[in-house]
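User:
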Amino acid sequence: MYKRLLVPLDGSHNAYVAMSQAQELAKLTGAEIVLLNVVDSDHYGAYARDVNYYDVYRQLADVSAGMLKKAANQLHTAGVVAQTVVMEGNPKFVIAEEAPNKYNCDLTVIGKSGVNALERLLTGSTTAYVVRHSVCNVLVVNDTAEAPVGGY
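Assistant: Predicted structure:
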């Protein structure tokens, strides 16, 4: 069935609920999970005017890596093989096209909504974009689903 699941994490409750659902699916199918966080270069560049652009990216990537490591440890404890990936770019494009192609993912498991409510109002949700443009199947997990056992 599925061999590699892409799970984008942005730190929101909904993303962790999606990860929990992906964990259960991976246990049933033997799939591996690719945990992804995208450092949004469209936004952090605006804050890097008076500092080194690379330094800003490195700090954000370090925070992302820490979040992903914690999530991967939870999956490993549950017996699921997981790898962590931090990518830079536009999250919508990276999640829909770049990451699934690069990591040979055949299903993206994504939360119904994430952390950026203002952007969702102005340009549409990342989830809606991924559903319309993804190069692989997409499972959208409702944000009212049960939270992960043991927290996150």
